[in-house]
Amino acid sequence: MRLLFLGDIVGRPGRTAICNALPALITRYGIDFVVINGENAAGGFGITEAILNDVLDAGADCVTLGNHSFDQKDTLVFIERHDRLIRPLNYPKGTPGKGSTLLKARNGADVLVINAMGLVFMPDLNCPFRAVDAELTACALKSGADVILVDFHAEATSEKQAMGLFLDGRASVVVGTHTHTPTADARILPAGTAYMTDAGMCGDYNSVLGMDSDEPINRFLTKIPRSRYEPATGPGTLSGLLVDIDDATGLATRVQPLRQGPCLAPATPEV
Amino acid sequence: MRLLFLGDIVGRPGRTAICNALPALITRYGIDFVVINGENAAGGFGITEAILNDVLDAGADCVTLGNHSFDQKDTLVFIERHDRLIRPLNYPKGTPGKGSTLLKARNGADVLVINAMGLVFMPDLNCPFRAVDAELTACALKSGADVILVDFHAEATSEKQAMGLFLDGRASVVVGTHTHTPTADARILPAGTAYMTDAGMCGDYNSVLGMDSDEPINRFLTKIPRSRYEPATGPGTLSGLLVDIDDATGLATRVQPLRQGPCLAPATPEV
Amino acid sequence: MRLLFLGDIVGRPGRTAICNALPALITRYGIDFVVINGENAAGGFGITEAILNDVLDAGADCVTLGNHSFDQKDTLVFIERHDRLIRPLNYPKGTPGKGSTLLKARNGADVLVINAMGLVFMPDLNCPFRAVDAELTACALKSGADVILVDFHAEATSEKQAMGLFLDGRASVVVGTHTHTPTADARILPAGTAYMTDAGMCGDYNSVLGMDSDEPINRFLTKIPRSRYEPATGPGTLSGLLVDIDDATGLATRVQPLRQGPCLAPATPEV
Amino acid sequence: MRLLFLGDIVGRPGRTAICNALPALITRYGIDFVVINGENAAGGFGITEAILNDVLDAGADCVTLGNHSFDQKDTLVFIERHDRLIRPLNYPKGTPGKGSTLLKARNGADVLVINAMGLVFMPDLNCPFRAVDAELTACALKSGADVILVDFHAEATSEKQAMGLFLDGRASVVVGTHTHTPTADARILPAGTAYMTDAGMCGDYNSVLGMDSDEPINRFLTKIPRSRYEPATGPGTLSGLLVDIDDATGLATRVQPLRQGPCLAPATPEV
Ligand SMILES: [Fe+2]
Ligand SMILES: [Fe+2]
Ligand SMILES: [Fe+2]
Ligand SMILES: [Fe+2]
Ligand SMILES: [Fe+2]
Ligand SMILES: [Fe+2]
Ligand SMILES: [Fe+2]
Ligand SMILES: [Fe+2]
Predict the structure, then answer these.
(1) Which of B175, B181, C122, C127 could bridge across to A157 with cysteines, CB 3.0–4.6 Å?
(2) Do A213 and B185 touch (CB under 8 A)?
(3) How far is B216 from chain D (nearest CA, A)?
């Protein structure tokens, strides 16, 4: 089967690019399941229910989050109503929502999506290595799910690469998010897990992390905020990866980066 | 003219890959000037004078450093003897060595190489934005140098992208290092500067940042060191970017990622 | 001569305690000069011009700031109009206001007040050690000023103690702020500088740093903000130190902690 | 009953001061139980079994640790043999040793000692608030233990004050360690828990955190290590607090700071 993952949606440029391009991508590539990180979809800060519904309508099967999960206060409420929206697994007990979800793909496969957050230079959540390990023990590849995708939302490349190798052979895909910058290291790890340190973002790359660059540059220079961060307003570029998965093993047979839009060198997977 | 930049050399796999491959790359692509970040060349921690000489002999014109600049104590001494080895510009006054160097390329062009270090999640050096700005004011593109390359050694993608846009049009190339993971965003910024958030490393990618993955995974799981970090020992992969520069403007006309080796999907520039 | 320093004013409880108690303290102890850190005077976040004037009217000769210097945007403007309000010296060039001020004490002595901010776990300003060193070189004790007080606004006790010993003999007083918790280590260092790692705060100590404890405890437990931080509303306690200075040398002859209010064990200096 | 807590032992000056003074203190004040943080007892880094035995022989009933728990590798082994040595509770499952211990005081009371570590600016352990809460639920004051002392080893005063108020009424004593600087805020919180943000250290205070100041000052100035950190070698000062506890409630009736030695203003509790 074939799975598409797209990185953090940043503001309107990201949303528009997804709504415009995703349906055709699903058709063209025969994609069975789509996961998108949506933690910056609402003006750069969190996600609203209306935006979530738009992204699901465009073809996403599951939306993941990160350190911006609850920037929109409503999310604490509506996340409980949605099976297709998850937040990092390693939030403390009692946090609204859930950190993983088991969903049906278009081809009938059971797909387990897990969202976890790194700790290096990040909020003090529970240990993501142990949290994901427990999840994969409870619902293992092939016995509990046909396909397992882990969105590891983390800052440090060390923590992301360690997670990839830690899970190698136990997940179909381990993909990083949060840096909003696609890495060029998509590959299949030795034991069969598709891996990419960061999927990049869906947004305007002529920016700082998808946000207009004036204020970030101002803060680096002066250390004093002048205004709020606002999403850049140029056309969005999509970034992520397309993974082919062996139905027998649940492991990856091919991973191809996908980048489509005006800012980055395109990466067009083979059909 | 044509310039090659390669990311952090990590241990023997990185050194061997460079010594084996660099001479042929220079010939094949007609490269006029080569800059390599060498901060992890000596077993992952700093650089020795012998290794520096090997890298220069293999064809590097300039070696840059980063937060590991002085892991080898000798570097505090021998850096003063070498015009082709620089450390971040924004170390405090009185630090041995220098943060920029003006060198002749094979085609006769004067190339200014600047090394700076980010502050986000990094040591507390002077402001890199102001330090580089002062340098570019003192030695501007075309009036002071034909070509200017900035190696911005930083953790956060935000700080690197802000630096790229801050310098756009004033440097030929702004390339990031430190995360040891190549990004897939090599491009020419609106005002003509070639930019890539991180060049990646030259080392064994079947690892955590080029180091054997056992100890990093152990520390993430247990929070207690069990042994020292050691470079992984598999064959190295080179990663960096090839930039074509307009002799008239000193700005970039083409930027192509280069990845060559067993671990990553290859990126082979056009000749 | 005799100098009083009081730590960070936090909200109304701190302001009220100062307005009520400071005039009597000045009289009772024959204080020649009063410095107060005011970075949290306005609801916990920065200072307004009206509050500054109230604090000066109550008897403060100089108000210092810290990482909350510009939480109230107006401060960027009115700080330029006030000789008695300073912000950390090691902000970048071009920052409104100044980092030191030379003022007349009631006994006619020239008092240099310097405000600097630490870098450990704090914003990335310029090196405070070098910034203060340059200031003390330009305006040395006895040649440039009769008395020199340094308010070092920093998180880490290591950085504060290093600053104290670094300046020992060159300043009359080095006192820390920012942790909002008085330390019990007020003493005269070997070369004559009065030192206290942290002066504590002027506010309601039945709290977390002067702020109502519900929201801080909520965030430690859940990692999700529920409301804004608000100052606690119980009666304020003053905390600081009283220093006697030898007019001939500018160095300290006695340092006594002062704590007055309902929450902490009182420290009542001898008259 | 009466309990003494002393802060982090730093190197030989701290050990000597404890061995010389503790027996007389126990006699003079009729102390029933002594807890000492020993994380820096061995040259500033961890503790050896020989040193542990010396400290126990001098009169300590329990020794706690912190971020330096396992700096001496042997500690991973010998901690399993000692009921009186504990490390932070919130290390991951499987960590050698334990995070709490129930011991008999000289007066026959059952004393539960809990050691926990903060997360702000500290290693990424499990949530200390939830870990201590679970412990106090399992072994509550009066039902599970006559007296409960929590050593909360943390950097940020905010986290320590939040812990104090979070546990107020559920523990006899909550005392902070790690900053090596005594705070002047020892008091009984509203619901009866004795609290002090930091107990200070037992070591040479003419130093940076008990370590010779040359190298710390060098690193702040140059950002380049010149030598290892070594304990300062002047005579040690003891610092901590003496708490009287109501046998009926297990809550505190009086808390008095204790400081004894050449560097700090003495704090001599009433007998
Ligand atoms: Fe994001
Ligand atoms: Fe994020
Ligand atoms: Fe590196
Ligand atoms: Fe680095
Ligand atoms: Fe403050
Ligand atoms: Fe502050
Ligand atoms: Fe310690
Ligand atoms: Fe510690």
Answers:
(1) B181
(2) no
(3) 14
Residues B71-110 have pLDDT tens digits of 999 999 999 999 999 999 999 999 999 999 999 999 999 9
Residue B116 included in any domain: yes
Retrieve residue C37's tokens.
Answer: 């850190």
* Residue B9 pLDDT: 98
What is the helix (H) or strand (E) element at residue D37, kind and residue range? strand D33-37
How far, in whole angstroms, is CA B112 from its chain's centroid?
A: 14
CATH number at residue B76: 3.60.21.10
Q: Which residues of A touch B157 (CB under 8 A)?
A: 179-181, 209
Collapse the DSSP code of C130 into the 3-class scheme (helix H, G, I; strand E, B; otherwise coil) and give the result: helix
In a domain? residue C187: yes
Q: Which residues of A touch C95 (CB under 8 A)?
A: 222-224
Q: Which residues, numbered 102 to 161 in chain B, qualify as contacts with chain A under a Cβ-Cβ cut-off of 8 Å?
A: 121, 127, 129-130, 155-159, 161
Q: Using CA atoms, how far apart are residues D59 and D5, in angstroms rounded to an integer?
A: 12
Task: Tokens for B14, please give them.
Answer: 């990185």
* Annotated catalytic residue, options B68, B82, B87, B170: B68
pLDDT bracket for residue D262 (50, 70, 90): very high
A167 inside domain: yes
Write the DSSP symbol of residue A79. G
State the total domains in chain B: 1
Phi and psi for C99 in degrees, rounded to 5? Answer: -105, 0
Given a contact cutoff of 8 angstroms between Cβ atoms, the answer to whether B49 and B38 are in contact is no
| Centroid of ligand 4 to alpha carbon of B68 (angstroms) | 6
**Quick one: pLDDT at residue C196?**
98
Surrounding residues of ion ligand 7, Cβ less than 5 A: D 8, 39-40
Catalytic residue among D12, D68, D160, D259: D68
One DSSP character per residue, D50-88 reads HHHHHHHHTT-SEEE--TTTTSSTTHHHHGGG-TTB---
B95 vs D: CB within 8 A: yes
Close Cβ partners of A111 (under 8 Å, ≥ 6 residues apart) = A3, A33, A61, A62, A102, A103, A104, A105, A145, A146, A147, A148, A149
Arithmetic mean of pLDDT, A174-184: 98
Q: What integer pLDDT is reported at residue D265 of this predicted model?
A: 97
Residues of A with catalytic function: 68
Which residue out of C45, C79, C224 would a mutagenesis test of the A interface target, given it has the greatest number of A Cβ atoms within 10 Å?
A: C224
Percent of chain D with pLDDT over 90: 100
Q: pLDDT tens, C43-77?
A: 999 999 999 999 999 999 999 999 999 999 999 99
Task: In whole angstroms, give the CA distance from residue C114 to residue C152.
Answer: 8
Distance C68 CA to ligand 6 centre (A): 6
Q: How distant is the alpha carbon of residue C120 from its chain centre? A: 18
- Non-local (6+) Cβ contacts of B35 within 8 A are B3, B4, B5, B6, B60, B61, B62, B63, B64, B113, B149, B151
DSSP bridge pairs for D36: D6, D63
Are the C-beta atoms of residues B84 and B118 closer than 8 Å to each other?
no
Quote the mean pLDDT of chain D.
Answer: 98
* Residue D128 contacts residue D90 (beta carbons within 8 Å): yes
> What is residue B39's predicted lDDT score, i.e. its pLDDT?
98
Instruction: Please report whether residue D83 resides in a domain.
Output: yes
Complex-level ipTM: 0.97
Domain that holds residue C11: 2-260
Q: What percent of chain B has pLDDT over 70?
A: 100
Distance between CA D184 and CA C258 in Å, rounded? 10
Contact B152, B177 (CB under 8 A): yes
Confidence bin at A76 (pLDDT 50/70/90): very high
Q: β-strands D238-245, D2-6: how paired?
A: antiparallel
Closest-CA residue to C159 (of B19, A241, D208): D208
